[in-house]
Each structure stands twice: as structure tokens, then as C-alpha cells.
Amino acid sequence: MAKQSKRYRALASKRKEDALPLAEAVKILKSYDGTKFDQSVEIAVRLGIDNTQAEQVVRGSIVLPHGIGKQQRVVVFAKGAKADEAKAAGADVVGEEDLAEKIKGGWTEFDACIAAPDMMKLVGPLGKVLGPRGLMPSPRAGTVTPDVGKTVSEYKAGKVEFRNDKAGIVQAVVGKMSFDSPKLIENIQAFIDKVSTLKPGSVKGAFIKGVHISATMSPSVRLAV
């Protein structure tokens, strides 16, 4: 585990452990800012799911109201008119076999990978490289789609994907410290609302068990949910 800075330890010592209303939690988080760079703001939602049950896996995507404050690099597997559509929408790289070979060689310098349905025979074997990095296109996440242009535009506008980890926690970037409080609040609430809609039918009891927000170099703040 990396050694925590004096600044981080000082902030952590003042951290409130109480669960706070969203607006107050954002205010506390922003008071932690003091670095020379624009920290990313992240959310972690602990879910009441059994991760060993396939039907209780929670994953999805959302276009946040105010984006995430970062220009995302998007690659697309498409050909013909679909390739032209992806390029027109701002895709950073569009390809077929050439792109597959590049990724097989270990290249993953992008934030999202989108594929037209007829490209999945080409994309399928890339699962060993893309899967562990959360970059594998899938219909459920909306990244295997005939509407590649619209999907590229969404990711360029700040769409984020999420999936629960082995501990049943969903994490995502929801903005930057430089965002004003109302924008952060809207993004965070939109993410929580989206996750709430994905409760599997087999889950009994509370679905969302806890929510924390944090920044790249700051302690977390617990939200009242």
C-alpha cells in the first residue's frame, strides 16, 4: 500500500464519519481540495448483492448531466458506412483486423471500445486483453450496437460504464474537483438514481447499502442514502 502523504493524513484526521446529505458531503469533499492538479471525483456504491449469482451482477452505463471533465479516447470496430459514421462522430481510432492485431499486442490506451454487431467475431478473441481492463464491448453495456455514431458521441460527452466488483461495489468517476457544487451534486445523484434502477429481482432487502464519494488524493465522505 502506498504511503499516505502528510496532507492526506491531516485531512483524514478531520474527516466526519457521519453519513451526510449529498449537498453537505460535496461541500466537505471540496474543502479537501488543495492540490496543484484537478482531481477526479469518484463514487463507490456498496450493493446488497450476491456476486456469485450471475443474475445479480450489476452493470450498466450512463451519460452524466455534466460529463466527467475528461476527453475520453474511443476506439471502434466497424467497416464501411458504420466506420464512416464512427469517424464523423469523433472516434479516435476506427478499424478492423488492423485494430484487433494492435490490441492483441497489448495496446489499450483508450477509455471505451465500441463494436458494430458484425464485428464481434473479430472482437471476441480480444476478451483476454480487454476483459480484465473493463473494456470489452458488450450488448448489455451498450457498446455492441448498430448505432455506433450515437454511442461514440455519448462517450465523447462523458458516458461512463460501471460493473460491480467481487465485493459488490460499483465505482465510477463522476466529475472533477473544479466542477461547481451543483454540477457535482447533479452528476452524483444521477449516478445513484441509475444504479437504483438496476436492482436484480432476486435481491431481497436493501439494494444500496452505502455510498462514498472521494477525490484522487482526498479521503472519502459517506453519503446518507
Give a concise summary.
The protein has 225 residues and is an alpha/beta fold.
What does this structure look like?
By secondary structure, the chain is of the alpha/beta class. It is 31% helix and 21% strand. It is built from 8 helices and 9 strands. It has helices at 6-14, 22-31, 80-88, 97-104, 120-123, 127-130, 148-156, 181-196; strands at 40-47, 59-63, 74-77, 93-95, 112-115, 159-163, 169-176, 208-215, 221-223. A 4-stranded antiparallel sheet has the order 7-1-8-9, covered by helices on one side. It is globular.
Q: Which overall shape is indicated by the principal axes computed on the Cα atoms?
A: globular
Bin the strand percentage: 15-25%
Topology order in helix (H) and strand (E) letters: HHEEEHEHEHHHEEHEE
Order of adjacent strands in the largest pleated sheet: 7-1-8-9
**Which bin fits the share of residues in helices?**
25-40%
Based on CA atoms alone, the radius of gyration comes out at 19 Å
Topology, number of strands: 9
Cα separation of the termini = 30 Å
Task: Supply database-style keywords.
single chain, 225 residues, alpha/beta, 4-stranded antiparallel sheet, 31% helix
SSE arrangement:
Elements: H1 6-14, H2 22-31, E1 40-47, E2 59-63, E3 74-77, H3 80-88, E4 93-95, H4 97-104, E5 112-115, H5 120-123, H6 127-130, H7 148-156, E6 159-163, E7 169-176, H8 181-196, E8 208-215, E9 221-223
Parallel strand pairs: 3-4, 3-5
Antiparallel strand pairs: 1-7, 1-8, 2-6, 8-9
Helix pairs in contact: 2-8, 3-7
